[in-house]
Amino acid sequence: MEFLTGVKPKETVEIQEILAGDYEGKEVKVRGAIHNIRDMGEVAFVILRKAQGLAQCVWEEGKTEFDLRELKEESAVEITGVVVSEERAPNGFEIRLKTVKVLSEPDQVLPMAVSKYKLHTSLEARLAVRPISLRNVRERAKFKIQEGIVRGFRDFLHSQGFTEIHTPKIVARGAEGGSNVFRLDYFNKKAELGQSPQFYKQTMVGVYDRVFEVAPVFRAEKHNTTRHLNEYIGLDFEMGYIDGFQDVMAMETGFLRYTMELLRREYKKELDMLEVALPDVSRIPSVRFDRAKELVSEKYSRKIKNPYDLEPEEELLIGRYFKEEYDSDFVFVTHYPSKKRPFYAMDDPEDSKFTLSFDLLFKGLEVTTGGQRIHDYREILAKMEKRRMDPEDIGSYLMIFKYGMPPHGGLGIGLERLTMRLLDEQNVRETSLFPRDVNRLEP
Fold this sequence. Notes:
The chain has 443 residues and is an alpha+beta fold. It is built from twelve helices and 18 strands. A hairpin with a 2-residue loop joins strand 16 and strand 17. It is elongated, with a radius of gyration of 26 Å.
């Protein structure tokens, strides 16, 4: 009888262990994929790809017990060799090979040269063979930085007393309403893929006061733009006992400050590789929706066309204005018109045509939508009646207000959009591992 007692001790070492330990002149065993082979004749450089980066190995004729001609790029191998300092090598060391053991090897030639520093191919070409193109070090770096954003979100909110929750994505009715939903046949019942965890977030405020979730969000809009996806990752939180929607904005500012510092400290290699300059988030300006429109109209001689919403061009100009005037890449635009906000958004008591809500623009792109929610049962019923909505359609959601809810608010952040702007990419598909849009369902 064999019993498992935890993680098995391993004979192999990782790049970080070599960097942190005293391995100079010592023999190590390492596993990884052959990223590139540079044959110089009697000597060859075999570049090993690991999760932490690249390791340079040196094959020497007569010293390495393996025929170099039998080695293929993308083979999974186990090597043994001696660690030697080498400033010109990735991570400042190389491994002088003694043995190479092939664990597996590819059957076909790669469809693109992933070992190149930059993939000089179109986005569509890279997406068509996404499992392969992601092996490129720069492509991988994007998603390590994205990992850092999610880490920052989770770590910061945990430090602020939030509880992480996991809500269903198969729902009876979307939180946003409308026709842009993916409909399902759920055991002969009508169902949808969730547009937002909004109803569940609010429900759980009555349980834990402060909650957050990192999960997929589905939108069935037939967009084919550089900023829209039909499935994306939402960073959502909801917080109770707020004094106003400004508390939500302040919490997001805290998250951004924490996250930028985390990226600066622990993701420097990836930031340098992609030449990313982190934005200053020490102070983020805010401006009312109507005033933002006026400022842009006055400075850039642009006629206000839609008084109820911001057009993409307008968002870009607002971002440009606050960069030029306040040197800020971010700006909160507040008090959106009630006509363009969901029924649960709290109206401004001073002018019910506007709501206590906001968007956060990052370099002229909306990356966050949030605000204060209605918490009074009679008030939410009155707003639904005004919009000719049937309360019976969302009875389980309205239940929470019948039995009392604190003043609360929250937001949703589009992870891919935030990453896109941070990396100065031009298409949100660049920052989605396996993007889903109107045309793409594979890989």
